[in-house]
Amino acid sequence: MDILKVIILGIVQGLTEFLPVSSSGHLVLAAELLNFHEEGVAFEVFVHLGTLLSVLIVFRKDVQKMILAPFEFISTGFKKEGTKEYLFWDLYILVGTIPAAVIGLSFKSRIEAAFSNIALVIMMLAVTGTILLISRYMPEKDQKMTAVKSLLIGISQAFAILPGISRSGSTIVTGILLGIDKEQAARFSFLLAIPAILGASVIKIKDLIEIDSYTTPISYLVIGAIVSFIAGYFAIIWLLDIVRKGRLEWFAIYCYLIVIISSVWYISL
């Protein structure tokens, strides 16, 4: 792997991890179109950790309050302002994480096999585009998050394990469909990404330990992590602004263009 590949893949991972266009789908297509097949497990771990750091930085205040909420409840109950809200958010994130964890661990080998199916990736990107397009016609509501809604959003995240289905797109749109304020839906989606990315990284680290060898220089791994962190940070800020403006359908057009280009390339093989 050379430095240009490191930078390109770091940017692709960082941007598409949070923008509603499917990071997995883009990485599969990038690997095929640009012949980037040798990044390896170690590189995947580092770029995932880079994107994890970006969401932790953007939502550092929420994350801090969510971590402290259980301890505040034990010591003072609900006397401190915000304790109850963030304790419930802890519950919602936990409930929302369960479906993806169950599916990911139960069907790990089948899911990994799906990443070699280019036709499937293209079809799932078309599904992502359609999901995003539907968001344009959803009426805006301002209902509160509940455990049931967090579970339903978590189920949509589980489907996003398939390459080509956007995690952020499916979870945000599901939240809006359930009547949650669009900014709250986006906030929940990004916070829900933390255990999802962390879990994926842990699995990859386990795979890396089992392999017990990798050839990518440590400097390239660090550069990949830094690039994915920077790209991820700006992707989150940008998407939050787009969600506020209610313009998720912009990404639907992008997904459809990628589907058309990829389809023409795939048919011509």
Verbal overview:
The chain is mainly α and 269 residues long. The chain has one domain (3-267). Helices cover 79% and strands 0% of the residues. Helix 1 runs parallel beside helix 11 (218-245). The radius of gyration is 19 Å and the shape is globular. It starts with a helix and ends with a helix.
Briefly say what this structure is.
This protein has helices at about 5-20, 25-35, 40-60, 60-75, 85-105, 110-115, 120-135, 145-160, 165-175, 180-210, 220-245, 250-265.
Features:
269 residues, mainly alpha, globular, 79% helix
How do the helices and strands line up, and which of them pair or pack?
Blueprint: H1 3-18, H2 23-33, H3 40-58, H4 60-76, H5 83-106, H6 108-114, H7 118-134, H8 147-159, H9 167-177, H10 182-211, H11 218-245, H12 249-267
The gyration radius over C-alpha positions equals: 19 Å
Overall helicity: over 70%
Query: Separation of termini?
Result: 25 Å
Domain count: the total is 1
> What is the general shape?
globular
What is the makeup of the main sheet?
A: none
Strand content range: under 5%
What is the string of helix and strand elements? Answer: HHHHHHHHHHHH
Class by alpha and beta content: mainly alpha
Q: How many β strands by DSSP?
A: 0
Number of helices: 12
